[in-house]
Design brief:
By secondary structure, the chain is of the alpha+beta class. It has helices at 2-26, 32-63, 68-93, 95-99, 113-182, 186-205, 214-229, 257-266, 309-320, and strands spanning 212-213, 236-241, 250-251, 274-283, 286-294, 325-332, 335-343. Helix 1 (2-26) packs antiparallel against helix 2. It is rod-shaped, with a radius of gyration of 37 Å.
Length: 345
């Protein structure tokens, strides 16, 4: 904000320095300093007064307040006063030129009255209009900036809410998994708790940034998959493939975990063989994430999950990557396919 004010002040100074220098460039040396001051500088001072009186006082108080009659009346009075002062100034410095002026058809020196008024008022009207244009532009720019700032604050607040919503959801489902292991396999339950502590440490301390390296997300997903595999039987085949080289890509954290969680929730049967296939590829800064799994819909009385994972993900994608993502889910031949493509640049 301070930099913008400095730029504005500097631009105004440069404009007026240029305008006050122009007479020296456009007039001959014989005309003298007095002529330049009287004929050029004095009107420029009047134009500047008109401009800044409107800019700092009249436009805000009258024009933007819809008091148009007052705004026009005050400006007319100012212009008439400055025209009168300018003419008195001309008379004082150029009496000999006034005596030598040609006589018009009415027997009076100088141009016709209507043309005189038009030529005298035009620069002042231009100053008023230019002041209105600059002030209106600044006002619209400020409003647009404030609107963007409000939108950004709302976006950040909503994203933060979704992020905090995801953490307890993840923790709740993981605890359900551990609970199922406590009686059947206490040793596995211990390992699972240890793995969960590492995952929660990442979620709590490393995902508060707007962007995280994709490599860290991949490591987190591998740990989570290994954690989930502990609770499924040997009938379940889980294959995953992630990029092994450092890509340099950064993206919003925890975008894929709900999809993996969903695959284990709906793609696993206690009695039937099933398969979960997870694949991520990178091409031209685009991340393509595909999960395929058998489809075993949950029973309506199954309360093992809160059901907020995918809606949460969809909302985050809309906020974080508008028009830069493709999210699609399909069921074909009792097989569930999820495709998520994110453009990261």
């Amino acid at each position: 904000m301070k930099n913008n004010k400095k730029i504005t002040i500097a631009s105004h100074l440069l404009v007026w320095i240029f305008l006050f220098s122009m007479p020296y460039l456009l007039t001959s040396q014989q005309e003298g300093v007095n002529r330049i001051i009287a004929h050029f500088w004095v009107p420029l001072v009047f134009y500047a007064i008109i401009f800044y009186t409107n800019y700092f006082l009249l436009i805000n108080r009258f024009l933007f307040a819809k008091k148009n009659i007052e705004f026009i009346s005050i400006n007319v009075l100012l212009i008439v006063a400055f025209i009168f002062l300018k003419e008195q100034n001309e008379i004082a410095f150029f009496q000999e030129l006034i005596r030598d002026k040609p006589v018009n058809k009415d027997g009076e020196g100088g141009p016709p009255f209507q043309l005189f008024i038009y030529m005298q008022m035009l620069p002042y009207l231009a100053s008023v209009l230019f002041s209105v244009a600059v002030k209106t532009t600044n006002r619209l720019t400020k409003k647009e900036a404030e609107s963007k700032e409000a939108a950004n604050i709302k976006l950040e607040s909503e994203l933060q809410h979704l992020h905090y919503q995801l953490q307890p959801h993840f923790f709740f489902n993981s605890l359900n998994n551990i609970y199922s292991l406590v009686d059947t396999s206490p040793e596995q339950a211990k390992k699972t708790i240890h793995s969960l502590s590492k995952l929660m440490r990442y979620m709590l301390y490393e995902t508060n940034m707007e962007l995280v390296p994709l490599s860290k997300e991949i490591d987190f997903m591998k740990r989570f998959i290994d954690l989930m595999k502990l609770r499924v039987s040997d009938k379940i085949i889980v294959n995953y493939n992630f990029p092994t080289k450092e890509t340099g890509i950064q993206l919003a954290p925890l975008l894929f975990i709900s999809l993996i969680e969903n695959a284990f929730k709906h793609g696993v049967s206690a009695s039937k063989e099933s398969q979960i296939s997870i694949n991520m590829t990178i091409e031209n800064k685009k991340v393509l994430f595909i999960i395929e799994n058998d489809n075993f819909p949950k029973r309506t009385d199954d309360k093992s999950g809160s059901g907020i994972g995918l809606p949460n993900l969809k909302k985050r994608l809309e906020l974080l990557y508008p028009n830069k993502h493709i999210f699609d889910t399909t069921i074909k031949n009792n097989y569930f396919l999820v495709t998520l493509e994110i453009e990261t640049s």
